[in-house]
Design a protein that fits this description.
alpha+beta, 4-stranded antiparallel β-sheet, 2 domains, elongated, 11 helices
């Protein structure tokens, strides 16, 4: 390579260096939240490049000038305020913005804010600060009495994180939240509900039904805990079809028992409690997928797991109560009608389980 060419390349590098230095930095923002007895305070650090892009400012140098930033304060707050929100104990919090610092060495701005009121038991942080950049992430650090208690990353795929304080009120908030979540999940999960109904179609004494539900609870609680703690986490593409198979097996067992009874054969041993316990292990992994999506608070992991299991148990008991009472009422009116319903219901259980198995195994994106 000739010297003139080398000189030209060096000159171009020197000329372009300032531009490279001010190219798009790592697409991150940083939100620090401090919880104290006197209230909540925090800081938000954003890169000048992102702010310049959103406010249509031609050069980022302006945002490193404290006086210029002061003039742009209202525009900056109008931009960011709607894109970040805090909820304290379930109620929207009023964020009061304070001074804005320039941080030239980080090519960033730091915004200070406070939230009036006492220390909350539960905090939800929602942020999507710079949607023009789909790779942008906001790192959230939550401090309680000066100690870092939780870290989270928010982006276009996950825009909210929850924090529960280590106080009695915080633990109660965890329990309320996850008990409700457990109840909702069992009641709106059609595969879990149908599995339970399939177990109940043959009816039985209150003691027998209680044994079945308890066995199911023990099974799914074990694997739910293992999966939630990342000790054992089989993939959803395996678990979801297996859940469908458990539904098919329960329906088929019902038909076998009903067929034996119709022929006057020897009474079969009731294996529903064993099916509930064994298949509960599989359903527990399904519960864990939902629980992980909801987000487990690491600062109250045991409480959240316990509360979610309690919620699932409450939901199960509601289902058992309604279905068992309805079946018993029908049987008192007509035993033949109750048997016919059990047979038709079992066929429906098998058909639904077969549909879910095919959907989750062979159709793209079929896993729930």
């Amino acid at each position: 390579m000739r010297w003139p060419t080398v000189f030209l390349l060096v000159a171009l590098a020197i000329f372009a260096a300032p531009r490279w230095a001010h190219a798009h930095p790592a697409p991150f923002s940083y939100l620090d939240l401090h919880l104290r007895a006197a209230g909540v305070s925090g800081t938000l650090v954003v890169h000048d490049f992102d702010v310049a892009q959103e406010l249509k400012i031609e050069t980022t140098y302006i945002l490193l000038d404290p006086e210029a930033v002061l003039r742009l304060r209202q525009s900056l707050l109008s931009l960011l305020s709607p894109r970040i929100s805090l909820a304290m104990d379930g109620e929207s919090a009023q964020v009061v913005w304070g001074n804005i610092e320039t941080i030239p060495e980080r090519q960033s701005l730091k915004l200070h804010f406070t939230v009036a009121g006492r220390e909350p038991a539960r905090v939800a942080v929602t942020a999507l600060l710079f949607p023009y950049d789909p790779l942008h992430q906001t790192f959230v650090n939550v401090y309680e009495d000066g100690r870092l208690k939780q870290q989270a990353i928010l982006d276009v795929g996950k825009q909210t994180t929850h924090f529960y304080a280590g106080t009695t009120e915080g633990r109660l908030a965890v329990v309320r939240t996850f008990v409700r979540s457990g109840i909702e999940h069992i009641l709106i999960g059609p595969d879990h509900v149908l599995f339970l109904i399939g177990l109940l179609l043959l009816r039985g004494s209150l003691t027998r039904l209680a044994m079945i539900v308890t066995a199911f609870t023990l099974g799914h609680s074990l694997t739910l805990t293992l999966a939630a703690l990342d000790l054992l986490s089989p993939p959803a593409r395996l678990i979801e079809p297996l859940i469908a198979l458990t539904i098919i097996v329960v329906g088929a067992d019902n038909l076998f028992v009903l067929g034996t009874q119709a022929k006057g054969g020897r009474e079969n041993k009731d294996i529903r409690a064993f099916l509930a316990a064994g298949f509960g292990l599989i359903h527990g992994f399904g519960f864990a997928f939902v629980l992980k999506e909801f987000g487990l608070p690491q600062e109250a992991l045991a409480w959240s797991l316990l509360a979610f299991n309690v919620g699932v148990e409450i939901g199960q008991l509601l289902i058992v109560g309604v279905v068992a009472l309805a079946l018993q009422a029908l049987a008192r009116r007509t035993e033949a009608g109750a048997r016919s319903l059990a047979r038709a219901g079992s066929i429906g259980v098998i058909l639904a389980g077969t549909y879910w198995f095919i959907q989750r195994t062979f159709l793209p994106g079929g896993s729930l």
